[in-house]
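Tokens as discussed.
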């Protein structure tokens, strides 16, 4: 579904992408692919997503929550036209898996765990995608498109993203505690791990040159490290808790 969202994004934005230096060579923007071809590919992606959805445990509940995500998947690419905070909508969309994963295992949503986990993902997305958006801010401004990079500006971006990084760390920590891992003494590897992930986000923010495309692209790509740290922390925390 995430890849389907990327296809939808490129379909909605092809007329803008061809005027942005970094995206003008994308297949739809460059004319290498047609919208009809993209639509067929999207159909395959959605079919695969439906197959996965129907194979999950607690299929009825999963279907309801999966269907609830579709409006976000379909509309978030449009948000850069209408809101100053499209990265927030992206976060709400991309982190829906926090809800789906819990429902697939338990059949119901425990918001004491899923709420902070989902919120931490949204905060994390705001960090990496705002830095990403700074790559295109000049082209976006010319085209009349909106982003948190433009909204926060040169002076507001780092303080606001610092707060988001702290929020992501707090959400990871609360989710771990509420799902039964216990305190730091009971699951030190989990809390040390998510703290390391939070520190990585702070490094991204405070070492970022908001006017250097290569610097920003490197920090954006480094979020796969953050993901692996959080994943490893979850595995270690669960092993220690038995």
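Sequence:
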């Amino acid at each position: 579904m995430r890849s389907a969202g990327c296809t939808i994004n490129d379909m909605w934005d092809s007329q803008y992408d061809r005027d942005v230096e970094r995206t003008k060579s994308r297949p739809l923007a460059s004319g290498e692919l047609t919208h009809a071809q993209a639509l067929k590919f999207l159909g395959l992606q959605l079919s695969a997503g439906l197959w996965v959805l129907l194979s999950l445990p607690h299929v009825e509940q999963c279907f309801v929550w999966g269907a609830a995500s579709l409006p976000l998947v379909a509309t978030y690419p449009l948000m850069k036209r209408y809101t100053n905070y499209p990265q927030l909508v992206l976060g709400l969309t991309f982190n829906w898996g926090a809800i789906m994963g819990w429902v697939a295992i338990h059949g119901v949503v425990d918001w004491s765990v899923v709420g902070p986990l989902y919120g931490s993902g949204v905060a994390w997305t705001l960090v990496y995608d705002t830095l990403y958006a700074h790559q295109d801010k000049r082209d976006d401004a010319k085209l009349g498109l909106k982003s948190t990079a433009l909204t926060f500006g040169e002076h507001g971006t780092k303080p606001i993203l610092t707060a988001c990084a702290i929020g992501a760390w707090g959400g990871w920590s609360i989710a771990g505690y509420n799902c039964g891992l216990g305190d730091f003494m009971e699951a030190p590897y989990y809390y040390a791990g998510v703290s390391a992930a939070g520190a990585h986000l702070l490094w991204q923010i405070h070492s970022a040159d908001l006017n250097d495309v290569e610097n920003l692209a490197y920090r954006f790509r480094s979020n796969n490290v953050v993901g692996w740290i959080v994943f490893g922390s979850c595995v270690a925390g669960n092993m220690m808790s038995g």
